[in-house]
Specification:
- The protein contains 18 helices and two strands.
- The protein is an all-alpha fold.
- It has a two-stranded antiparallel sheet with strand order 1-2.
- Helix 2 packs parallel to helix 10 and helix 6 crosses helix 7.
């Protein structure tokens, strides 16, 4: 009898120990310094460096200005990230720009950011990266012709479904997937850089001669080159979206930024140099997939590793984007700026599953229209508008919230410089080459005011009668509950 009761007693002891542990229905702090660096590096190094070299070069004209744009974009991304490090250690809430705009300017700018990000900026970014992944995978099977558009889009949709599922299942699984793909992408980056430097040492410097000859001095061209270069660096603020899940954010947030972004900048510059040791500017512009062309010329017969690892790189960036962007939707829902069900957390998985699934559905819709470059320019316009507003908020809070604790305080000239660059990036393409897309973007942002006053400010009863049964049904279907009240 004693032998029969001992396992039962042991199980009861285990249950009693577990019952003393706090059960918090909220997102858990499961992201350390290494995972934080992997999120930054893994999200930045995605599709951009494998697509944007063509777009940057086409807008600058020659090799010299192209490399200068890449260096300048890296410096700007670093300065912007330092500003976000101050904001992230002062306001330790997830959601990226959203809580900073809320603190600095109030609910309306924050709502407009969450509205635009949820419906345009974040899902379009996710779609662009997955389309890039699909293009590189398909390029390996359609070496003599362009892959069919339907095949590319179907594969991109499948990638979105897989990544959304992984991040809905487990925070830790999503973090492990991110770490693996970041390691994989650093392998292909190292292969390209080392191969290029070896060729450069062997005297392949012809493409660097007269590298500034015939450079067009168009302000619009330079701004578009900046757009496409900064698209390749986009992700420098991604860790601010998961601040609440970051262990010791006062230390790990700035440290991950200081390590991650300069590492990416060095890799980007060396990769571009490697490209130009193998391809002339004309050949690079004609290439359907720059890294694949590089592999065919340098690594044959092992050139198949390039599209494989580039696919790893892009799918890793897509995973990082999904991992972080879902938190913005979650935080906006928690603050009452989105449907409440989007702020609910899975009881079993402790993930913001409804927010991530919703994000995946919107991104899938974005796969259908347009080509990648038009999406990049549209995405960058709205993005830098809010980057500038957020950093203006940093300057404003230097005066309105002087007593707030600031573990990091950047010199005031840094945010002012980033604000001026943001204004240039927003206005220059509109002035030099006006397009209806920019007007549509502004009108879409402002249309969020209608939804804000109808559903957030006024809170009409009929809207609650419709949303409550839907919320209840989705809550039972996905086994999700509201998070415990957030305590700052």
């Amino acid at each position: 009898m004693g032998e029969e009761t001992s396992p039962r007693k042991r199980r009861e002891d285990e249950r009693s120990i577990q019952s003393n542990e706090p059960k918090v229905t909220n997102l858990q702090k499961e992201v350390g310094l290494f995972s934080g660096i992997c999120i930054i590096v893994g999200t930045i190094i995605g599709s951009g460096i494998f697509i944007s070299p063509k777009s940057v070069l086409s807008n600058t004209g020659t090799v010299g200005p192209c490399l200068i744009i890449w260096v300048a974009c890296g410096i700007l991304a670093t300065l912007g990230a330092l500003c976000f490090a101050e904001l992230g250690t002062m306001i330790t809430k997830s959601g990226g720009e959203y809580p900073y705009l809320m603190e600095a300017f109030g609910p309306i700018p924050a709502y407009l950011f969450s509205w635009t990000s949820m419906m345009v900026m974040k899902p379009s970014s996710f779609a662009i990266i997955c389309l890039s992944f699909s293009e590189y995978v398909c390029a390996a099977f359609y070496s003599d012709c362009k892959p069919p558009e339907v095949v590319i889009k179907c594969l991109a949709a499948a990638a979105i479904l897989l990544i959304t599922t992984v991040n809905s299942l487990s925070v830790r699984l999503g973090s492990y997937v991110q770490n693996f793909f970041t390691a994989a992408k650093m392998v292909i980056v190292a292969i390209i850089i080392i191969s290029g430097l070896v060729l450069l040492a062997q005297g392949n410097t012809k493409n660097f001669e007269n590298s500034f000859a015939g450079t067009p001095a168009s302000v619009g061209g330079i701004s578009l080159a900046f757009y496409n270069g900064l698209w390749a660096y986009d992700g420098w603020n991604q860790l601010n979206y998961i601040t609440e899940e970051l262990r010791n954010p006062y230390r790990n947030l700035p440290l991950a930024i200081i390590i991650g972004i300069p590492l990416v900048t060095v890799c980007y510059i060396l990769m571009n140099i490697s490209y130009f040791t193998v391809m002339t500017p004309t050949e690079l512009l004609q290439s359907q997939a720059v890294a694949v062309t590089f592999g065919d010329r340098v690594l044959y017969p092992a050139s198949w590793v390039v599209p494989l690892f580039v696919a790893f790189s892009t799918i890793g960036a897509a995973n990082g984007t999904c991992f972080t962007a879902g938190r913005l939707i979650y935080v906006a829902g928690r603050e009452g700026h989105m449907l409440k069900v989007l702020s609910y957390i899975s009881v079993r998985r402790l993930t913001p599953a409804p927010a991530i699934i919703f994000y995946g559905l919107i991104a899938t819709i974005y796969i259908i229209p347009g080509d990648i470059n038009s999406l990049v320019n549209y995405f960058s316009f709205a993005t830098w508008l809010f980057y500038g507003m957020t950093i203006i908020g940093l300057v404003v809070m230097r005066f309105t919230k002087k007593t707030r604790k600031r573990p990091i305080k950047v010199p005031i000239f840094i945010p002012i410089f980033v604000i001026l660059i943001s204004v240039f990036l927003v206005l220059a393409p509109i002035i030099t080459k006006p397009a209806w897309e920019y007007l549509y973007c502004v009108l879409f942002i402002l249309s969020g005011l209608i939804f804000y006053f109808l559903f957030v400010y006024c809170k009409f009863g009929w809207a609650q009668k419709i949303s409550n049964p839907v919320t209840m049904y989705l809550q039972m279907l996905m086994e999700v509950v509201p998070p415990e009240k957030y305590l700052e």
